[in-house]
Every structure is written in structure tokens, then in C-alpha cells.
Design brief:
270 residues; mainly beta; 2 domains; 15 strands
């Protein structure tokens, strides 16, 4: 058995049964000899096979579940956290709390404070503050629809049922530099679509209306679920919340790791 390249837990499989990372092949006799020595010198001892590892720092986990933007969906113009920020005044501040649990280890928690620095016609600037880290400013472009460089390669129709209601959707396949994706669109649904898929990742609308209460208050949201080979993610989005995300939950495929991000407070700027 050898340590996983990512989580360092011992296993003998080509793909880690814990974090699903595939082993990297080391080529050459010199590299084969040097690799174990480097691992021994640089890495901490690995937990025994089958033993839960201590939870990683919450700040590192937040990189996997960033509450300030929508990733590739924002890049192609499907969902825009920046657009939600742009409807608020400068100095609007949202405090989010991340709760991270690995196996039977105690939960670790950490706050993130996101502040709107300025909103312009085509972009917003936000400041992100996390524990024991310097504040970081980010510029986010405001997406207003699927970007013009996305070309339609196929067009069909399909009926999708959402929370007991059927919607006949236009299904468009798009191709652009670095990505292909498919969208099931319907103008009556939040953000104008029911489902989107790209590669082995699919996000679908679970509920068009779902009222939830978090510490920051009660919000009327749309509930979305994303599935990937590594697990599932559920997100409650509201256009009344700066940045859209009221609550987000992620769970690994084996159920060994979970993470939740919730809005704790919203202070409107003046």
C-alpha cells in the first residue's frame, strides 16, 4: 500500500477510494528511487488505511465551494453572482459560515466576509476576508446571458418534470473554446433554464420555489443540485442575496466528507 497523492491515506488501488484521486505514474529508475525519499522528507505520516484523516483547514475546503462566484457557469453567462452583487450599494457586506466535517472528526468552522467594493456597468469588485489570511479583492464580470462566442451545434426539445410540474424545454448544445455544454431552457424558470450539463457534471433545478431560513433571515430561493463523479452539491439561490448563494451543501460520493456554507448576516451599504 502507498499514500494517496492528494489525501495521503494508504491504499493499494489505482484510484483512491477516499478522495477518488488517481495515482500519478513515476517514469525512470532514478525517479522511482527518489520519489519515496522525497515523500518521506516532505510529507507528514499518512493515516492507516481505513482510518479517517483529520479535516483539512476550512479555508482550503472553501476553495472547492467558493461562495463568491459560480465558476464555469458564470464564465459562459448562465448564472451571474456578480449581477446579484451589482444591485446593492457599495460596502454591502455578507458574512458566511463554513462547516466542514470529515468522517467522525469534530466539525471545523470558519467565517468568510465578502464586501462589495464597487459596482460598475460591466463588472463588480468584491473583497474576501478569511481567518488568518490577508483580504483579497476580486473583479467579477457581470454576465447577462450566454456569451457570444458559444456556438449552437444542436437544437431539440425535451419535457422535464420539476417538483411535479412539466416544462417543455428547448435543448441546445453549445461549443466554445475550452468547453462544450448543453442547456435545457425555459423562460418561466429561474435563470431561464431547467438543467445544464458539461462533461461529467450536471446541474438541475430541483425546486423553482423553496423558502428557507438561515441566520441571515428567510429567503425565497430556487434549489439546484449538481452531480459530479466525486459527489453532489445543493445550492439555494436568491436574487435578493448579494452573490446569490443563501446556502450551499456539498457531500462526497462516499458520504465521508460534507461541507455547508450559510449566510449568517447581510449588512447593506449606504
Amino acid at each position: 500500500m502507498k499514500p494517496c497523492d492528494k489525501c495521503k491515506r494508504l491504499h493499494a488501488e489505482p484510484q483512491c477510494p477516499f478522495c477518488l484521486t488517481r495515482r500519478q505514474m513515476v517514469i525512470g529508475a532514478a525517479a522511482i528511487v527518489a520519489a519515496p525519499l522525497a515523500l518521506k522528507a516532505q510529507d507528514p505520516p499518512a493515516p492507516a488505511y481505513g482510518v479517517a484523516r483529520p479535516p483539512e483547514p476550512v479555508d482550503k475546503a472553501l476553495d472547492l465551494l467558493d461562495p463568491t462566484q459560480e465558476g464555469w457557469m458564470e464564465d459562459v453567462g448562465l448564472i451571474s453572482a456578480a449581477k446579484a452583487w451589482s444591485s446593492h450599494a457599495a460596502k454591502t457586506r455578507v458574512t458566511l459560515l463554513a462547516t466542514h466535517v470529515v468522517g467522525k472528526n469534530p466539525a471545523t468552522k470558519a467565517p468568510t466576509i465578502v464586501t462589495l467594493v464597487k459596482a460598475e456597468k460591466e463588472s463588480v469588485t468584491i473583497r474576501v476576508e478569511r481567518q488568518k489570511q490577508k483580504p483579497v479583492e476580486r473583479g467579477l464580470p457581470i454576465a447577462t446571458g450566454i456569451t457570444s462566442d458559444a456556438k449552437v451545434t444542436d437544437l431539440t426539445k425535451e419535457t422535464i418534470e420539476i417538483d411535479g410540474t412539466k416544462f417543455e424545454c428547448d435543448v441546445k448544445s453549445y461549443e466554445m473554446v475550452g468547453r462544450t455544454f448543453k442547456v435545457w431552457s425555459h423562460k418561466e424558470l429561474p435563470f431561464g433554464f431547467a438543467k445544464v450539463s458539461s462533461g461529467d457534471e450536471t446541474m438541475k433545478l430541483v425546486k423553482a420555489k423553496d423558502s428557507i431560513t438561515v441566520k441571515a433571515g428567510t429567503y425565497d430561493c430556487s434549489l439546484w443540485e449538481t452531480t459530479t463523479p466525486s459527489g453532489t452539491r445543493r445550492v439555494w439561490r436568491s436574487d435578493k442575496m448579494p452573490g446569490l448563494t443563501v446556502k450551499s451543501e456539498i457531500k462526497s460520493k462516499d458520504g465521508d466528507e460534507t461541507m455547508t456554507v450559510e449566510a449568517q448576516s447581510v449588512v447593506e451599504g449606504k
